[in-house]
Amino acid sequence: EMVAIRRMTPQDAIVLRKRFGGRVVIAGAIIVFCMTVPVLNLLIPVLAAASMVHIFESMRQKAAAVPANR
Question: Chain-centre distance of CA 37, in angstroms?
Answer without folding.
Answer: 21
